Amino acid sequence: MDLSTAFERYVKLEKHDAYALYCDEKNLKFLKPFFVGVLFISFINILVSFFEKGALSVEFIFYCIIFVCGILSLFYYKKLFNISNIRRVLIYLLISGFLLFTANAVINTLLEKNKEITIVTSETPPKVKTDTNKTKDETSITVKTDDTRNILSYSFLFCIVILLFKFSRNEIIQLYSLALGIPLIADLIFDSDTDTGNILIFSVLTLILFFISYSAESKRRIKFIKRYNQYVKSNYETIRMKNELDYARQIQLSMLPEPRIKIGELEIAAKSLPAMEVGGDYFDYFKLSDTETGVFICDVSGHGVASALMLSGLRSSMHLVLEDTKNPREIFEKLNRMIRKTQSRKMFVTAIFAVINTGKNTCSLFNAGHLPPYKIDGKTGELFKIKRHGVTLGAIDEIAPDTADSDVCIDFMKGDKLVFYTDGLSEATNHARKEFGFERIEKTLSENSERTPDELLTLITEEVNKFTENSEQHDDLTLLIVSRL
How does pLDDT run across 468-479, given as a tens digit for each residue? Predict the structure, then answer.
């Protein structure tokens, strides 16, 4: 595996945590083919046990259970196993499997133990018991079946499996201790006459496998940490900048309001997904009075650090301006002057500020060059696009002359919804470079007009992900939906 790209993720963690993540990724990748191998071996054993011992034998039932468990594990693989639980689940699986196979061997030993075979003979073979109640010419020989060899073979296979996966040194010690201890305990409890030679050979082989596994883990850890340190040393400045940007992203996301909220008679759901570490989209909502609520969404041109810095100043100005006025036109006139005076380079901001008055059943908004929002009629489910808009913030000194008809006031009754979004939604592209487009947005809204804002938000996000096939996001995406209860 080429670790050059992976180390960009690893260096965000402490080296020992990064190494644990590396091992877990390897284990998660190998577990699926391991299950396939277990299924194949189980199927062979099912056939063998069926023809040799029948469908009611313990072995046949046992391997059928293993086979079914393997099928279910593969079918629900993504739901059962992930990078956060693979280490814990893998250890549980191996130990449970080992104990089940050992229990199967013990049961077979108990079932086969002390079978008597009557043979007519004149001498008594060594190491057999003679029943004196028989006639002089007949000797009863009890042949002891030694299935402890099965337990030893299962333990040896368990040791081999430990070698296949990536465990820590402490886990290796614990697993090999289990592999060595279980056969010895089973021998003492169920079969005290077992040949000690088999136990001795098995113990030596187990110790050899333990040292191989332990030394391989140590070499793997040393090699990984060496690469980790080399990558950190050679990419120190890049790593520092990435850490700073990650921190900036956390701060920027913390500036956003709650994604799900109820303000008076309004229910609001919103989401913002930056294309890079930091983005240029922003949304907010404000309780202006007992009956008035302000809703704000904006998109700074471009994305990245420059847009994020511009956005930070815009957000602060917005809170200050709201202390003086709540008229959408006046708010944007003040914001436009701020942008024009403080930006040496040409940066533009598209934005919408809407004031919803539940007392008057109205919504007054001003659109500064932003994409047209949608209104969903609560009674008929009809979809309206509000197209009227003014000039983009930062483009000219006067964005909306008094003579211009840029202000919008619409009815906003109970059950009605407003949908605001940025161009990251309509321009989301798939691998064929086709855009999600307005038609898909309008179709989704029309067919699901009765849904709650949270349900609509989730549904549209799923539709976008399905359309783009989780391809790389090229622009910030923000979606805000308001509903009148």
Answer: 887 777 788 999
